[in-house]
Amino acid sequence: MTGWAQIALLFALVLGAAFPLGAYIARLYNGERVFLTPVMAPFERGFYKLAGIDPNRQMRWQDYAVALLMLSAVHAGLLYAILRLQYYLPFNPQNIPGMAPNLAFNTAVSFLTNTNWQAYAPESQISNGAQMFGLTVHMFLSAAAGIAAAGAMMRAFSGGHLTSLGNFYVDLTRIALYLLLPVSIIAAVLLLVAGVPQTFAPFAVAHTLSGEPQTIARGPVAFMEAIKEFGTNGGGFFNANSSHPFENPSAATLLLENWLLLVISFSLPITFGHIVKDRKQGIALFAAMAILLVLGVAGTYAAEAHGNALQIAAGASPLHGNMEGKEMRFGSALTSMFNVSATGTSTGAIAGATDSFMPLGGLVPLFLMQLGEVTPGGVGSGFYTMIVFALLSVFVAGLMVGRTPEYQGKKIQAKEIKLAMLAVLILTLFILGGAAFSLMTKSGLGSLANAGPHGLSEMLYAWTSATENNGSAMAGISANTNLLDYGLGAAMAFGRFAFLIPVLAIAGSLAAKPKLPPSAGTFPTTGPLFIGLLIGVIIILGGLQFMPADTLGPVAEHYLLASGKLF
């Protein structure tokens, strides 16, 4: 019962914070004064003046998309240069050399797209300076860009005959200054108090009882850890990520970090309710996200708490469940909750090795990513992806009753549905096509640590994680090869931008339409019927696309394990 109580406590804390934070973010989108305005407004005006930005300029969806893409391209080049030249940059006391071109490309695209896939070993392949001034800066940038895009989508429903979606640079600046930076500073201080290091000093050297020296990696961990979770980034300062004691010293810090990675994504539906002036609309989206995540956490914890059938048959006690790959200070409940929350939010951080989860326990994080990262998804990206599914849901409802579908007073027509399906199918193409191609090559097969269904799960998980901009890995795959560095890098870029452009096009199309008042024939989008339909569409669409492949992976492995066989 202790495990279920810990899970319930986390969800209660997230629920309690989501409503006030959602209202706060709505004020940021609307350009209203907030309590941080006296402190941050001078910096905000200074940035606009320095960059030559007119904060009053409004952007069409095309301008918004171009601004986002151009800024992303510039920063991708800058980060690539930092990673290639890190040997010559300050704060590199270990004299770590620059990354190879393929690895630098993969890492630059990864952190630009909020994926934070790590094909490198942080302790030995990236310097403290590159971690802090390269990767951490882009954790802020990618998170702010996603939240800005979500705001553009929300504005499309705020009125009729709209010609603009806001100003990307203003949205980006306000989100970074008034939301991401202050909360990250507070969280970093709390982590420092709890024992997480924050230093630019060289690695420590301890002299062991045997007389041999032991090198202990350390660096500016606390601040990076804070934005890593709060911005649903996930890239760890250490290779063991959030299971490392320097990133997560205790169960209390794990709860704090778990709260950080969930709270913005669950707040954005509440923000949506404020923007469209109908809070029930936001609560309906919130409920769908929460139900899917709760089911995921419950399913994984149940699988892990039951334990390994082979070990139980051999006489091992099932009392603590399956503890392989988990930290004793967290246990099955907190590890399951954290890993499912991370894969449900495109964070990519892990508190235990997903590779060591029971087959069905590992299936849940994989399937949550395949559903489109909407449970509740990454900061910003989870919300606008949920809107895509909401449009598909009202389209299905319209087919059932023979009416033109509407959502938030906007008629949903062929153009929006075609763009929605294009966005969804782009992800499917890279996940299934990329995994299939990799498994047909010698390089791809050589990257796997396991054969049989588990090996298939590892490769499928890698391509799903990259394309859905999650960044976690099953840990049994060696990803630093030309095939996977460039292949997964392309999947990350297309998963972020080739999905986002159709989404902004949908927002532009809907913004220009009149906002119609509800009528007697309007399908209600606030009650249990819509919530159930939305959940059904998400699960069925994900199941139709991915369950055949998942059946050959974790499902087949489950039945082999139950029959007493191993691969």
Write up this protein.
A hairpin with a 5-residue loop joins strand 1 and strand 2. The chain has a domain of 183 residues. The chain is an all-alpha fold and 567 residues long. The strands form 2 sheets. The chain has a two-stranded antiparallel sheet with strand order 1-2.
Strand arrangement within the widest β-sheet reads 1-2
**Helix share, percent:** 55-70%
Main pleated sheet: 2 strands, antiparallel
Mean pLDDT: 92
How much of the sequence lies in strands comes to under 5%
Overall form? globular
The radius of gyration is: 23 Å
Q: Which structural traits does this protein have?
A:
two-stranded antiparallel sheet; 2% strand; single chain; two-stranded antiparallel ribbon; 567 residues; mainly alpha
Entry summary:
The protein is mostly helical and 567 residues long.
Write the layout of secondary structure elements.
Elements: H1 2-29, H2 37-51, H3 61-84, H4 101-112, H5 122-125, H6 128-155, H7 168-194, E1 204-207, E2 213-216, H8 221-230, H9 251-275, H10 279-306, H11 309-313, H12 331-344, H13 359-370, H14 381-401, E3 406-407, E4 410-411, H15 414-439, H16 442-446, H17 452-467, H18 482-512, H19 528-562
Helix pairs in contact: 1-9, 1-12, 2-7, 3-4, 3-6, 3-18, 4-18, 6-7, 6-8, 6-14, 6-18, 7-8, 8-9, 9-10, 9-12, 10-12, 10-13, 10-19, 12-13, 13-17, 13-19, 14-15, 14-19, 15-17, 15-18, 17-18, 17-19
